[in-house]
Write a structure and sequence with these properties.
Structural class: alpha/beta
Radius of gyration: 19 Å
Oligomer: single chain
CATH superfamily of the largest domain: Response regulator
Distance between the termini: 24 Å
Strand order of the largest sheet: 2-1-3-4-5
CATH topology of the largest domain: Rossmann fold
Helix content: 25-40%
Order of helices and strands: EHEHEHEHEHEEEEEHEEEEEH
Shape: elongated
Number of domains: 2
Number of helices: 7
Largest sheet: 5 strands, parallel
Length: 238
Amino acid sequence: MLRIAICDDDGYICDQLEDFIHIYEVTIMEKFNVETFVSEDELCQQLTENIFYDIIYLDIELKQLNGVEVGKIIREQMSNEITQIIYISSKENYAMQLFKTRPLDFIIKPLTYDKICETLDNALKIITANDIVFLYKKGQISYKVPIKEILYFESANRKVNIITIKGSDTFYGTLESIAEKLPYFINIHKSYLVNYNYVIKMEYHQLIMSNTVILPISTNNRKQVRNKLLELERCLQL
């Protein structure tokens, strides 16, 4: 069951958004666990107690910490790149501030059911894709790693290093065979296959990952990488 948090100091907005989510539940025949918070302190308290939310609808104009600062706590202090953050606001001038917290979307009030449906559709596509596990073997032993935990793969001769949010491991294999199984990963270099969801910045010749590691984009792959990023962004918006 997906856990969804709503944080807005306007109780009416919390109730309206929760109603929209419950209507959406009926249309897709699923059940969500929805919690509402009228202060950022209440939400942050839950987060510090290791309560995980798959999706957070977060107002920007809160009373003490604003929504951007709460987003930074989630991304930077808690190293949480999995929760889908959807900002809501009555103002439009926050685009540059939001970039560093890597939100899924930014909704301008007043809220409508169609807007909420669109954000939930997109969030579920990402979450569903991330629930798949990657299987690899070391000798006769098989290992499973949730795709949502994998940052990137690094090829080293006949071996592959798998880098995750929890650590790393090494197994025999090729990036080509891995890429066929993982459509949301991008082949940026003959030695690197990266998880799109953990790319926080793309420059002409390199990518910066959420763990601050900088990975090179080979000259031959630059056009392909740009096209792949555009393709993935279009898919997530459908």
